Amino acid sequence: MRSYPHNSPEAAARIVALVLISDGHVCSSEFDILRQLGAERELGLEPQLLPHIVHTLCEELLAGGYETGSLMANVDDSTLASLMAEISDPALQRTALRLSLAAARADGHLADGEAMVVAAARHHWRLVDGEEPIASPTARRLAA
Fold this sequence. Notes:
Number of helices: 8
Mean pLDDT: 84
Shape: globular
Number of domains: 1
Low-confidence stretches: 133-144
């Protein structure tokens, strides 16, 4: 799997992408909420780059899991640790986690795969279990 520069928007977007695909499919409601929250802007990505990062991640995971046909077959603790280590900036960590949680909850259900990636982020970034990232003004307005 490719490496992105440390604390880059692409590294953070890949965590969001991993949450998006971790339940086996991406629903339009997940992309809709990310669009409403201005996810690409929040992460510092160029417009329309998030779908490309999701697509690239799927290709990389499928290439590694060709025997099982499962996207998440080769995403073990070591892989998660490596992906999470690319983001050490606390503000970027909170942004990635906040957007990931918003997308995961968009369909009204937190799937096991989504919960696993979120738990890994909290563990590797040393966020207290149950600690919610600080919501942006946009997220607070949408939640109200």
